[in-house]
Amino acid sequence: MKLLIGSIAVFLLANLIAAYREAFRHPKNYALVDPARIFRFGMSDGGGFAPLVADGAPIKGYVVDAGWIKTWYEQMLEIERRRLALAGHRARLSPASRT
I need a surface site. Which of 24, 37, 93, 99 has the fewest CB within 10 A? Predict the structure, then answer.
């Protein structure tokens, strides 16, 4: 089950980045946009995705507000642990972590 959930998460993340990259290609089609002066702005998850979206395209710079300080996996673990604690589940150590 873990492998399936991990595979789905990777699939969803890859598709999300692909969609952002597709959207990033469009502004340069407008005469009022100078491709040499494009900055990317990202807040929260957008701050984490912003550098991934350019995909090698020239970009002037990035402005990030409250971007990632953890990996996506660490963030998901923290959310799941918080969800379980709020639902009344106690944390248990696995046998491997007790040594």
Answer: 99
Residue 1 burial (C-beta neighbours within 10 Å; 0-12, 13-18, 19+): exposed
Q: Name the residue among 83, 88, 42, 90 with its Cα closest to residue 66.
A: 42
Give the pLDDT band of residue 1 (cuts 50, 70, 90).
very low
Q: Where are the domains of the chain?
A: 2-91
Q: What span, in angstroms and rounded, lies between the C-alpha atoms of 74 and 82?
A: 12
Phi, psi of 39 (to 5 degrees): -110, 150
